[in-house]
Design brief:
The protein has about 240 residues and is an alpha+beta fold. The protein folds into two domains: about 80 residues, 434 Repressor (Amino-terminal Domain) (Orthogonal Bundle); about 140 residues, Umud Fragment, subunit A (Ribbon). The protein is built from eight helices and nine strands. The strands form two sheets. The chain has a seven-stranded antiparallel beta sheet, with no helix packed on it. A two-stranded antiparallel sheet has the order 1-2. Helix 2 packs across helix 4.
Length: about 240
Amino acid sequence: MPITVCNTLRTMKKERSEFGTRLFLARQHAGLSQVALAKKAGMSQSSYAQAESVGNGSALTLQIAAACGVRPEWLATGKGEMLTNVRAVEHDLDAHPDLSPVRTVKLKLQAGVSGFAVEPEEEEGPPIFFRNDWLQQRGYKPYNLLAVKVKGHSMEDKLYPGDLVVVNTADTEPQDGEVFAVNYEGEPVVKRLKRERGSWWLASDNQDKARYPDKECVDSTCLIVGRIIHKQSERI
């Protein structure tokens, strides 16, 4: 850790929580003011200031981590290293300035809608890269994107176990026929939303409805994490 950050840490008020301290260190690492970081992470400056001073958990931990260039797991829990594979990523970005990285993570979700809606458990692999012009043409912000691996067979024959999908966490508005990552009763699932009988339903593409029945998406059990905007698959 840089000496300047260590010295600053020693002079910080003792009442600052561990989470608030990590937010402060992440912001110092990125060289951002509270206003600049809040804008980059898509939140109000007052909300960020409260999180840093009071130390309450932030539902935008993923965005803040991406904006600061630190590991989400470290920011959320303090576990592991603050920075991971920074040199490798910086080398790739230096060699290809027209690319932006998207972090590959596992999702750790909580049941209900309180607390963190999405919490990175640990990095599952190296980041994937997208051309900046491709992102800009579609209005995607790299800090709103995360990549996760598909598990199970419920979305065959569109998605298979091991496929990598990119989730846009800024796009949580239900859309009929679109595929979303969803927190369903505390479990991460990838499902196609459909509108029927006045309700939203989580539908599997797998035609074995006895094994993969549709499930109603209601506020008490279902929270949309983001829309799937891209997939990487070895199946054609």
